[in-house]
Amino acid sequence: MNSQASAPLLEMRDITKAFSGVAALKNARLTIGRAEVHALIGQNGAGKSTLIKILTGAYKRDGGEIRFAGQAIDFSTPLQAQRGGISTIYQELNLIPLRSVAENIFLGREPRRLGLIDWPAMYRQAEALLAKLGIGADVRLPLHLCNTATQQMVAIARAVSQHAQLVIMDEPTSSLDEQEVETLFRVIRQLKADGVSVIFVSHRLDELYAVCDRVTVMRDGQTVAEKAMSDMDKLQLVTTMLGRELASTVARAASDSAAPETARQATLQLDHLKSGLRVNEASFAVHPGEIVGLAGLLGAGRTETARCVFGANKVDGGQMKLKGQSVSWQSPADAIAHGVAYLSEDRKIEGIIPEMSVAENLTLVLLPKLVKLGVVNRQAQQEIVQKFISRLQIKTSGPQQKIRELSGGNQQKVLLARWLCSKIDLLMLDEPTRGIDVGAKAEILNLIRELADDGLAVLMIASELEELTAYAQRVVVLRDGYSVRELQGGEISETNIMAAMANAGRATAEEGVQ
Amino acid sequence: MSESIPMNAGHLAQALAAPIARKRSRWHLLRTQGVLVALVLLIIFGATRYDNFLGAYNVLSLLRYNSMFGLIAVGMAFVIMTGGIDLSVGTTAALASVISALLSPRGVVLPLAAGVGAGALIGMINGLIITRLKILPFIVTLCTFLAAHGLALLFAGNQSVSVSWDSGFTEIGQGDFLGFPIPAWMGALAFIAGGLLLNFSAFGRTVLAIGGNEEAARLMGLPVDRVKFLTYLMSGALAGLAGVILASQFGAGQPNEGNGWELFAIAAVVVGGTRLTGGEGSIGSTLSGVLLLGLIFNILNFENGKGVISLSAYWQSVIRGVFLLIVVLLQARLAQKEHEAGG
Amino acid sequence: MTLTLKTPGPRSLPKWAKVPSGALLGLVLLLLFNLCFTDHFLSLQTLNINMTQVSTIVIVAVGMTMVIATGGIDLSVGSLMAISGALAPLIFGARTGLLAIPAIGMIVAIVLPILAASVGGVLNGTLVARFRIQPIVATLILFIAGRGVAQVLTNGNLQTFSHAGFRWLGLGKVLGIPFQVLLMLAIVLVAAWVMRSTLFGRYILATGGNERAARLAGIPVQRVKLAVYVICGALSGLAGLLVIAINSSADANLIGLGIELDAIAAVAVGGTLLTGGRARIVGTLVGALIIQLVRYTLLAHGVPDAAALVVKAGIILVAVYLQKREN
């Protein structure tokens, strides 16, 4: 074992994993040193979640080797990993909200006296553990009354008290305010001082530089960079993550970008929109006939902004204008009644009604208009369904097939048709091509362009930069909930977008939107 | 990793924990101790209004009768705290009463053991189907509710079964020990043991953890399935014991009795402030809940005895329902407040 | 990309009439068994007895199907039946003012009790939709209190009456078919049509199938939920009237006792998803028939009614388990 002292704490090599034939990881690699804070970054679908799940035993790997603390390991459940010294602090904390802080730390290992739980000892030990992390909290308080940061500390304290050598933090700062982030960083440094290593998954680049020693970048299921944090600047980080070369991207020909239609009234105008912690100050406009791309890293507030416009999230401040009229919604139904449509990024949870047929899913929004005295006009319904099935080339055995039996791309087309068949003025698409095969991707994107050409105002959230550069007339970049840059025409290049996302180069926070 | 986390998580983060805690503790106090206050008020009301209300006869028979519900409520409280429900307790008690009545000529121990055993068996079936086949507890226990009723009727031949009066069996329900009814002793024991189990054993804490967040409890390495199984077993066994007391107290195994006991128990548990979605609860308050519901019936009797007004016994279920409504609305309001606060 | 073959599936029943094949098979086997081994099974009388006994269950179960299709449950149906059943004799027993006119008395005695039961449905629906209380608990309140109200109304006494019009509701026949069987069939058809052809039916299924997606598609989820509980209450009220009409007497202690279990069983056996999102109204009818036939068969062969309970429990469990495996 002595010879292992200088060896890395964790070595994952040549990890491969496929889900129903589709490769999620291709020879992925992750090496974590002892007492090291290690950043793990990558786009959605880059494979970092899969890699972590394989490490913690939630998934079984197809190939590759994992060595932890000098030994080959093969955990088959997260519980085993925990007992083996690897603890995960999940985004949705895996704690029991109604139980006290102390109980959450000690559940399953309560201190006993005479066979009964020794509450005073438990409270004492919990206090001591938290104090060691520099946290003073009432350990008798039910956990759900503590703020999110404290809840995270409790999860960390639980991990530490179980002698974790490696703590995985999945987007730990996503719901923390600045002060709480500072507290978290202090705790992370404390862990490091105690010889514990941390895997830190986040997309707030400033934070990575503030707390991490080294970084692993993943893309398309592979490890594309492993470097010391100080050896990579922000722009490099973003370009590596997105797989783009800086100079190689050619700005589009000026002719391709129609002049912004500022003359016409904007379909949507956002002015200092604020909502929760994710949307701080979003200001931009979408005009009829144009596709506006909404760019940003994960957690930049893109989805939340769209949901505000759709009435699904509460607006805390700022102004929202639809065709010149100031509006505020009680529910999505209000927004829909005013011609606003939103295609959620999560098809399964927020899109399809799995037990219903293609026809019924397709006409769900339009249905009230197909009704006379409460009775659905089935013939009109059939005609519309047939029209859209052929127009969007939806591959289905028939309108009566259950939507859950369709492929992802065809489900997405049905959901798109759900909005297209009713009269809408503004279409917001949240990652419309996620989880869809290449052929269907191009089809859907071309369709969106046709719609815009027909006069629809489109707001498209996309993480694939080429989708934005190829299809958007303007691109608004969000960073940490602020709209920090607006690019149009010839300015739209992957380089410029990435620079704005990374807060490097020409784009700075002060620049704001013109 | 989705971009959309619950938006309101932030509101809580911004708020300081302490003020909420203070505000919450007021609600919490109302919810957990409100039933105790109501109980005390009801007792004072009864004691000042009626002679003999606090007399030994009334108190002892009240305890003797309600101990059956108390036993069932203890088991139900544990099941509910895991986030489950057991609708089979009433007819399980009926089945146990029939079995113990049939065996009553054989003394005390055998019928007692058989009755409790039958209850435990039903509980085990519930627990096994719920944890292994992952069918909703509500459906599973509904089925065992039917099955136990059917079995009770079959064993009893569709009529009540008289117990033997000279084997000592009737002592279980009718006898006293140190001047106190034996069923009341059993009930008291169940409540004390239940309270200890809940508050001072890993089992009890696991029960609450499961009800609070089953997935997290699994990830914490707690034996979720085993503990759930045990709560149903416990609930069944306690229902069996209640059935034995029923047969012994009324001198007959009653296949059609017990219908609706499960709802009485659920009402008592909820009125006692236990969260119906699980994760939070108290055995002491459950006791208050049982006594409160029992007292309402008792006071109705006294009131009718005075002859001033004539409220039929049927009012009791209306009043119970109203109680349940109030408590459920309070709970919903509290949950809403917590939700708004970002919990 | 997958190649889609245009293979027209075997000509199948329209979706609203779909019934799980297991349930159909069960029904057919039960019928065959009875044809072979039960005396006088193939007679109009046997048919009428079975259909009459099943009709109240089916009427309640239709409402229950709608509630369950939204992902809910209604335990209070039996109590609502009791309220309506107890109320009706009080009304046509009143014989004062306008109520003394037989026609008006009859109409009020039908409408008012159904309305009263619907109000119970409003309470259930409000608790579930507005206060977000779990349906089991929300409807438990009226399960307990509802029968109490009925008992208080009648002081727990058996009310007997002789009212020709009302009697006809229970025992009357049209073309030799009991009126209530026709009523049951009409309700089944209307409900199946509502589920299939109306906006409301689509909204019920969408709400139960994926509440979040339904909300994001602009569906008034809360109102839909409220509505199904009100409908379930109204149908329970109607069933309560039929029960007392058959007996020419109303006993608040017994009307609809335990019917929630029969209704849920019929729904589960009939192939409606207990988690919501799929409703099979005709399946519910088949489910109720199976449960009725099992009881009848056992009874006709000297097996006590009690054993039927055990069998019923087994049938529900198997049906739910199969449903779970299928998904």
Task: Describe, in plain words, how this protein is organized in 3D.
- Chain C: It comes from Amantichitinum ursilacus.
- Chain C: InterPro entries: ABC_transp_permease (IPR001851).
- Chain C: This is Ribose transport system permease protein RbsC.
- The complex is a heterotrimer of chains A (about 525), B (about 350) and C (about 325).
- Chain A is of the alpha/beta class and about 525 residues long.
- Chain A has three domains: about 1-230, P-loop containing nucleotide triphosphate hydrolases (Rossmann fold, 3-Layer(aba) Sandwich), CATH 3.40.50.300; about 265-340 and about 425-440 and about 455-514, Rossmann fold (3-Layer(aba) Sandwich), CATH 3.40.50; about 350-425, no CATH class.
- In chain A, strands 6-9-10-3-11-12 form a six-stranded mixed β-sheet. A six-stranded mixed β-sheet of chain A has the order 18-21-22-15-23-24, sandwiched between helices. A four-stranded antiparallel β-sheet of chain A has the order 2-1-4-5, covered by helices on one side.
- In chain A, strand 11 (about 215-220) and strand 12 form a beta hairpin.
- Chain B has one domain (about 35-340): Orthogonal Bundle (ABC transporter involved in vitamin B12 uptake, BtuC).
- Chain B is about 75% helix and about 0% strand.
- Chain B is built from 14 helices and four strands.
- Chain B has helices at about 10-15, 15-50, 55-80, 90-105, 110-130, 135-155, 170-175, 180-200, 200-210, 215-220, 225-250, 260-270, 285-305, 315-340; strands at about 160, 175, 180, 250-255.
- In chain B, the strands form two sheets. Chain B has a two-stranded antiparallel ribbon with strand order 1-4. A two-stranded antiparallel ribbon of chain B has the order 2-3.
- In chain B, strand 2 (about 175) and strand 3 (about 180) form a beta hairpin.
- The two termini of chain B are about 20 Å apart.
- Mean pLDDT of chain B is about 85; it is low at about 1-25.
- Chain C is mainly alpha-helical and about 325 residues long.
- Chain C has a domain at about 55-255 and about 275-280.
- Helices cover about 70% and strands about 5% of the residues of chain C.
- Chain C has a two-stranded antiparallel sheet. Chain C has a two-stranded antiparallel sheet with strand order 2-3.
- The two termini of chain C are about 25 Å apart.
- The relative contact order of chain C is 0.20.
- Chains in contact: A-B, A-C, B-C.
- At the A-B interface, helix 2, strand 8, helix 5 and helix 9 of A face helix 1, helix 2, helix 8, helix 9 and helix 10 of B.
